[in-house]
Specification:
The termini are far apart. This protein is mainly α.
Length: 123
Amino acid sequence: MKNNIVLVIFLFLFTVSCNTNPVEKPEKLLSEEEMVAMLYDVAILQIAQNRIVSLPPNFKQNEYIYTKYGIDSLLYTQNHKYYAAQPKLYKKMHDKVLKQIEAEINEISNSEKQNKETKVEAE
């Protein structure tokens, strides 16, 4: 009997702890759409810095994001932690970012194809 009570209490606490977000909701919660837009911009800036072009040496990515979205580092960090603590939602958000990047790549590829075809026809 005593073991059953301990087991029920343990299961109850386990269930409650698994269903709550361990990170507090920020006072100013940014919408999912705002976070997706910010994550997209961060990804593009990282790609630009690491792969494609050289950004000016004094360019500060974080400050650019904060200024563009009218936030500060604390608000960004609080919201990022809040959404990251919800893995399914966070993955969904990153999937949206990936789809946007893939759409941009396809658009650029199609544009390059059209430019090549136009040059061949002009010759």
